[in-house]
Amino acid sequence: MSVASLGTRLFEIEWIDWLKRELALSHDRKVRTAILVCGTVLCVIISMTLQVPELAVSAYMVFFFSKQNKAITTMVGILGFVGVTIAVGISLLLYKITYGHPELRIPAMAIVLFGGMYLSRILTIGPLGFLLGFVIAVSQSVGELIPSPELVVRALLWLWVSIVYGVGITVALYLLFGPRPTGPAHKPAGFFVPDAFTNSAHVHFALKVTFAAMFCYILYSAIDWDGIHTAFITCCFIALESTEATMRKANLRITGCIIGGAIALFSTVFLLPHMETIASLIVLVAAVSAIAGWVATGSEQISYAGLQIAFAFFLSTFQGYAPDTDLDKIRDRVVGILLGIVVTGLIFNYVWPERERIELPVAK
To answer: Counting beta carbons within 10 angstroms of the beta carbon of residue 68, is it exposed (0 to 12), middle (13 to 18) or buried (19 or more)?
Structure first.
C-alpha cells in the first residue's frame, strides 16, 4: 500500500470514528430530540388546524429556542417573548413613518438591524438584542409586498403569534420533560459584557451582519426576485451564531442547507402529492425533525448543521395549508438560503475576521 493510500485510509477511519462519537447516544440527547420532534409536530397540528400563517417560523422557533436544559430554555424563552413583543410594537410605529416611503424604510431597516446585532454582542442577555433587531428589520423588509396598511398590521400581528406560540410550546415541553441543570446556574454579573464599550469587534460584527443582510435585500429587490427573500433571514440567523468567520462553520451551514433542501425536494416530488391528510404530513415532519434534532443536540462540532437542516426543510416545505408541489418555491428558498450563507461567509471571512478564537460558540 502506498503512503498516499495509507494516509487516505487513516483519514477515512478517523473521520468515521469522529462521526460515531458525534452521533453517539445519550439520555439527554434522546430527551431533547424527542422534545424537538413533539414541538415541531404540535406546531404543524396547531397551524394547519387553525390556519396560523408562517408555520415555518413557528416550527423553527422550537429548534432555535431549544437549549441544553429547562432552566436555560425557560430564560431564553421569556426573553424571546419580551423581545418579539417589543419589536412588533416598534415596527408598527415605524410603519407610520416608513410605509410607502422606501427612502426612509431602507435606512431604518439598516439602523435597527445594526442596533440589534450590536446589542446581541454587548448585552449579557444578547438574544433579546438579536430579536429586537431581527424582527423589526425583517418585518420592515416586506413593506413593499403588502398593498395596504391594514394588511401590514394584520401580517405583523400574525408574525407575533407565530413566533410566540412556537416559543411557548418549546418552553412548556422543556418544563415538563427537559433535562435539569447539572451544575450551578450562571447568573450574569451585570447588564453589559465586560468589554462592551472597549472591544471594537462588537461594532465590526454588527456592521458585517448589516451589510450582508442589506446587500441581499437590495440585490433581490433590484432583480425583482422576492422568492429568495430567505437570503435576508439567513444572514441574520447564521450571523448571530458566528463570532468568528471560519470556513468550518460555513461548511456546516452549507451542508445542513443542502441536506434539508434535498429532503424537501424529494418530499415534494415523491411524497407530498400522495398525502391527503395531516397525519401523513406529521409522519414526514417527525422523521425529518428527528434527524435534524439528533444532529442539532450534538456537540458544537455538528450542532449547527442540524439547525440548518431544519431551517432549509421547514422554509422549503411549509408553503401553505395544503400539499404544494411547486418546485419553484423550493428552488427560490434554497437559493436564497445559499445566497445568504455565501454572502455572510465571504464578508465574515475577509472583513475584520475574528480568527483569534479556537473553539466554536455554542449553537443557538
So the answer is: middle
Burial of 99 (0-12, 13-18, 19+ CB in 10 A): middle
Average pLDDT over every residue of 108-116 = 95
Q: Write out pLDDT tens, residues 333-345.
A: 889 988 998 898 8
Amino acid at 44: V
Q: Are 253 and 236 in contact (CB under 8 A)?
A: no
Measured CA to CA in angstroms, residue 51 lies from 162, 236, 288, 321 at distances of 11, 27, 22, 7
Specify whether the CB–CB gap between 330 and 228 falls below 8 A.
no
Whole-angstrom Cα distance, residue 89 to residue 135? 10
User: Considering Cα of 141, then 48, then 132, then 341, what sign does the dihedral take?
Assistant: negative
d(Cα 33, Cα 259) in Å, to the nearest integer?
A: 18
SS3 329: helix
C-beta neighbour count of 23 within 10 angstroms: 12
- pLDDT tens string 282-302: 999 999 999 999 999 988 888
Select from 241, 233, 243, 242 the least CA-distant residue to 213. 233
Side chain identity at residue 5, one-letter code: S
Contact 122, 193 (CB under 8 A): yes
Q: What values do phi and psi take at 192, rounded to 5?
A: -115, 155
How many beta carbons lie within 10 A of that of residue 9, not counting itself? 11
Q: How far is Cα 50 from Cα 35, in angstroms, rounded to an integer?
A: 22
Instruction: Return the domain boundaries, the chain.
Output: 27-350
Residue with cell 431602507: 106
